[in-house]
Amino acid sequence: MKISQNFDILFKFCFVIVDIYNQLFELHRQFLDQRKNEKIITVYYGQNMNADELQRQKENIGGLISINTFLLTRIDQTIALEELSYSNVLESVFYEIEIDTSITTKPYANVTVENKSGILLSIGSVFRIESVKMNQNGIWLVKLKWGNDVQMQLKHTLELIKNKIGDIPTLFLTVGMLWDKVGDYSKSDMYYRALIENLPKDNMDTGKLHNFIGDLFCSRGDYSLAISQHERAIAIYKTSLLAPTHHLFAYTYGNIGLIHSQSGNYYAALKYFNITLDTLLKTLPPNHLDLTQTYSNIAQVYRNICNYTLSLENNKRILEIQLAHFSPVHSSIATTLNNIGSLFLHKSDGITALKYHRKALMVQLKSLSHDHLSVANTYNNMGLVYHFRKEYTKALDNFNKALDIQQKLTEPSNMGMTLINIAMVQCEKRQFTLALENLEKTLGIYKKVYSLNHPTIALVYDCFGSVYQIKGEFKMALKMFENVLKIQSQCFPNNHPDIGGTYNNLGGVHDDMGDYERALKYYYKALVLAHEILPQNHPDIELYQHNITEVKRKLA
């Protein structure tokens, strides 16, 4: 069946939906009159769902969720629990929904449907996911909230979308985004295509839509589809007779650069970022704040290819622009000082690195609260410098300062990198049990936030592998690095530099085990991949070549 035919059917149902909605709106007024003294109403609803759908909700704590049907909920928690069926295949999920009665954007009311009475929530109601936890009976308890702060969050999200796509009719887009949110990409893509097919081909707003959909594809890791959407946007802007210096060209080239950067195609990323910069400089003064994001993107690419000198040049340019616009104690200046400090650490200049991180801390303590997350990040940076200088006590002191701040915040995932940093210092001190305990904590935290094939999970396994390798437990080290490779192969292109690093790690473990033939195989894999994508003077290439030479010497 053609997409257009599907939408004909959907629109026939629209009249029924509108009629139900209008009736519910009338009942809603009566319902509120009867409950004038109740500021908060709590309702309950149970359902079974597959593990992937539940995982997406676990990963979206603090985010918004919308219902795409009219939902009959219960006021009595016990009745709602009794109605929840159990399945050996699906997860049992029980929702507790807190509703602020002062919010009237979507109707709800007490109704009776097929001898079942409860609160009927309107299609399109939007809630924030407050928490997702399993109780002692194996039921997942999901707390949702509908209040003023949720409405503000929704309003902000919709404003961001409007700024990106203009005044495009958003029915298809909204439905597509909902399917995107729950991970059903085939359905979301169908709605996006339907929207595009119903818009003029040479309209500037259609180009903005392609940009927006490109961003969505990028966020789910579909890099080739993302690039194709941005390229279509550029083609539309050209046929719309926009000036080559129009900001939409710069924005789109910048997006393509970011996708190449995330894919590990650093030279392609540099090409597009430089096109973006050239486009912006034709219409903006050289110290305009809008230039700083592009300089930052360029600096990050140079950092990734280990050209720290050029990365420093771009970060110092950012600092010059910021100092021309902001007070010397602005938090953005602290961020740039931290970036410069990290680059000096990469250049093995710990003294200068520490100087910049201390400057950043001084700025933050004057402009932010002392328990701000950015302050914790600076303590982490200082800890890394002390780790590099083998001043382990000072390193742990700074990491613990960061941890103290992060533990006061509501999001546990903030602690992840700090626990990793602490674990790696403990590994250096041969405190393997403590190191492994902290990595286990980190893995537990991240599994509640990220999908199991997320690069952040791979990072934790990589640290596990390093600890086990230093500890001499080579089989466990191999297992961990193989886990890393499995995740990377699912979320990165085949020639991503991080995959080369994992090949090298696998080679290193086999090398330590005396299995030189297998070690050589992995070292060569790492080298071939690095030659594909990295500059010939990159330190990784030098390292892989050195490892190959050493193993050949051992075999000889």
UniProtKB/TrEMBL annotation:
Annotated TPR repeat ranges: 376-409, 458-491, 500-533
This protein's UniProt keywords: Repeat, TPR repeat
Taxonomic superkingdom: Eukaryota
Pfam families per the UniProt record, alphabetical: TPR_10, TPR_12
PANTHER family: NEPHROCYSTIN-3, TETRATRICOPEPTIDE REPEAT PROTEIN (AFU_ORTHOLOGUE AFUA_6G03870)
Name the record gives this protein: Kinesin light chain
Species this protein is from: Didymodactylos carnosus
